[in-house]
Amino acid sequence: MAQVQGHCDPRFAKLKALFEKKIANDEELGACMALNIGGQTVVDMWGGWFDEAKTKPWETDTITNVWSSTKTIATFACLLAHERGQLHVDDPVAKYWPEFAANGKEKVLVRHLMSHTSGVSGWEQKMTAEDISDVPRATALLAEQAPWWEPGTASGYHSASMGHLLGEVIRRATGKPMKQFVADEIAGPVGADLQIGAKEEDWPRVSPIIPPPPLPFDLSKMDPNSPVVKTFGNPPMDARVALEPHFRRADMSAINGHTNARALNRVLAAIPNGGSVDGIKFLSPETIELIFREQSNGTDLVIGMPIRFGIGYAIGGGCTAETLPWLPSEKMCFWGGWGGSLEIMDCHRNVTFTYVMNKMGEGIMGNNRSKEYVEMVWNILKEQE
C-alpha cells in the first residue's frame, strides 16, 4: 500500500487518519494536501498512487493537471501586475489590448475578466480542444466577439476562456506571456513547483488524471444558445485531453496548470498572510482588499448556482454561503478545479488550505472528498479558537 507521507502537526491527526482511510478504501487514488497557518506550514501530506494501475506511489515531487485551480494563479498574477503598476483592475481591457474593444466590449474592465462578469465566457465559433490550445488564434477570436450578456451585470463562469483573456492582458501589460510571468515573478522567487502547462522534461512526474463521472447536467437537453451550453459545450471537454502534448504545451492559465498542493499553498498563502511569503512581498494590504470587492452575488449564468465573486476569486458570505455551506463563511476567498482540487484562503484566521488529486470526482466545485477534508480542518480550527 502507498502510505501517507510528509508532515502533519499532531493537532490535525484526524485529518491524516481521514486521508489514510480514503486512500485505503480507494476513494482516493493519489493526492496531496497542505495547510498553512500564520505563515507556517502545519500540514504537507501526500499519499496513494501515481497511476491507475498502481505501479508506483505518488511522491513528494509528483505534479498533475489541476484544471481550474490554475485560475487562482492567473488572477494572482493580475493582482501582482496591479500591485506593480503594470495594469489597473479598473482599467478598460482595451487600454492594453485595443483589438478587444470590438463588438461592444470597449467598456469591459480588467476586473470583469477576473470575476467572470465580462460576458466572454467562451467561443462563438465552434472549437475543439486542439483549437483552444492554439492560444494566439483562439485569443484573437475572443477579441472579435460580442459579449453574451451585459458586462458587469452578472457572473458567467469563464471556464476555459479566462486563461486566454487574462493571458493576453498580462502579455500586453508586462511584455511577458502568462506562462513566463508566472515562472519568473511568482513560482521562481518562492521556489514553488508550479507551471502553466508542463515542460516536456517534467512529463515523467505528471500523474495522469483519472476522468470523472459525467457532469450532473445534460447539455443536449438545454438551450443551445444559453451561456451554459455555449461555454461548457464548446469545446466539448474530455478530461483525457490533459494527457495530450498539445494541451501540456499550451499557455492556458484557466485550465492547464501543473502543480501540487504544496506549491499552490506556497504562493496563495500570501493572501491571508498580508501579501508576503517568507519575507518576499507580493501584494500590499490594499491590493488584497480588492479581492473582497464584490463583483457579483447571484446565480452564475454558466454554473447555474448562486455564487459570490470578488476580483479574482469567489468569496465567502452572500449567496456562496447558501450554495457551499461547508466553506468557512468569514472573510475568505477560494476556487477549485474540475474533479475536486481546492484552494481556500481564510483571511479571518490567516489559514490557507490546498488539495490536489489525480482521481477526479463528480461536480465542478470541490468533490465529496475535498468537502470532508475542509469540514474537518475548519472544525479543528474552530475547536481551538
From TrEMBL:
Record-linked InterPro entries: Beta-lactam-related (IPR001466), Beta-lactam/transpept-like (IPR012338), Beta-lactamase/esterase (IPR052907)
Gene3D superfamilies with a match to the protein in the record: DD-peptidase/beta-lactamase superfamily
Annotated Beta-lactamase-related domain residues: 17-362
Record-given protein name: Beta-lactamase-related domain-containing protein
Organism per entry: Fonsecaea erecta
